[in-house]
Write a structure and sequence with these properties.
It comes from Alicyclobacillus ferrooxydans. Helix 2 packs antiparallel against helix 3. The chain has one domain. Strands 1-2-3 form a three-stranded antiparallel beta sheet, covered by helices on one side. The two termini are 18 Å apart. The chain has three helices and three strands; from the N terminus they run H-H-E-E-E-H. With 120 residues, the protein is an alpha+beta fold. A hairpin with a 2-residue loop joins strand 2 and strand 3.
């Protein structure tokens, strides 16, 4: 079992011994990314014209700016991401994806252990 294997299903876990399920849970918990470095959203590049008639953007595409688009409480929010923060934001987004995959697999493992009434 591995966090990138989307073909694993709870039905296939029935043939795996309980001890292996428990060991996999421990492995997953060890590789869970730091929860204080998780971001949900998408990075978007916007091209904006500054309005100066002599600027290169007046006849071109515009100045590129990076934004984090996120959806919370029924609203989409766009937050500007300074160049110095780009890698930090990308890491937070990657951590979110990894955490989601790990949580999904942990849920499947816990469900199978519940079905077996194994509280390990």
């Amino acid at each position: 079992m591995n966090t990138t294997d989307k073909n694993k299903s709870p039905r296939r876990l029935k043939s795996v011994p309980s001890q292996e399920l428990k060991e996999r849970k421990l492995q997953l918990l060890k590789v869970l990314p730091p929860m204080d470095q998780v971001l949900r959203g998408s990075l978007i590049t916007r091209h904006v014209k500054c309005g100066k008639p002599t600027c290169h953007c007046a006849t071109g595409v515009g100045h590129a700016s990076l934004y984090l688009s996120s959806f919370y409480h029924g609203k989409t929010q766009m937050d500007y991401v300074p160049a110095a923060w780009e890698q930090r934001v990308r890491t937070g987004l990657e951590n979110y994806e990894v955490a989601q995959d790990i949580l999904s697999e942990l849920t499947e493992l816990n469900l199978e252990l519940l079905r077996r009434r194994d509280n390990g």
